């Protein structure tokens, strides 16, 4: 199985980017992982929130194939502890899917079309974090999930 993280827009914080890259590199020991950035939209000040979500949604949907399992990182998604998240990863790996895609949306969330295509929603916290920080938190939790599945000492139970 391949896991991909899609995110709208690049990060402007080099320290967060470096920390995220560290976990991305570590993930390579466990699974094929790709992190792809969908470029920010241009001239967004001329767009309504709905128009921006629609345009970003099209860019997200263009990245998917019909067989991909899509999970949105969404404030209204299901919350897991780290062990529960590792069990979710194992469930998807056991299901035989080729690609599991997680998406961090733009500043206004996702379009109705993206919600309709999604196979699930995941919330990392009830708190609000910047989309740039979510990249780091998610990749760390993904790494932690695989160390749990391999019964490695990174995660102390």
List keywords for this structure.
alpha/beta; Alpha/beta knot; 157 residues; 5 helices; five-stranded parallel sheet; cytoplasm; globular; Ribosomal RNA large subunit methyltransferase H
Q: Identify the CATH class.
A: Alpha Beta
Chain-averaged pLDDT: 94
For the record, what is the CATH homologous superfamily label? SPOUT methyltransferase, trefoil knot domain
Overall outline: globular
Structure description:
This protein has 157 residues and is α/β, with parallel strands linked by helices. It has a single domain (2-149), classed as Alpha/beta knot, CATH 3.40.1280. The chain contains five helices and five strands, in the order βαβαβαβαβα. It has a five-stranded parallel sheet. It is globular. S-adenosyl-L-methionine binds at residues 73, 105, 124-129.
């Amino acid at each position: 199985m391949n896991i991909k993280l899609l995110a709208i827009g690049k990060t402007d914080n080099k320290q967060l980017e470096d920390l995220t890259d560290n976990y991305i590199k570590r993930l390579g020991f466990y699974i094929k992982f790709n992190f792809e950035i969908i470029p920010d939209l241009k001239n967004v000040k001329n767009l309504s929130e709905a128009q921006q979500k629609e345009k970003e949604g099209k860019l997200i949907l263009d990245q998917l194939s019909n067989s991909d399992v899509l999970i949105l990182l969404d404030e209204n998604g299901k919350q897991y502890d780290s062990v529960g998240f590792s069990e979710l990863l194992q469930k998807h790996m056991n299901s035989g899917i080729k690609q599991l895609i997680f998406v961090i949306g733009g500043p206004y969330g996702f379009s109705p079309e993206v919600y309709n295509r999604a196979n699930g929603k995941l919330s990392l916290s009830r708190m609000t974090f910047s989309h740039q920080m979510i990249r780091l938190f998610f990749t760390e939790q993904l790494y932690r999930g695989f160390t749990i599945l391999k019964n490695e000492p990174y995660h102390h139970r």
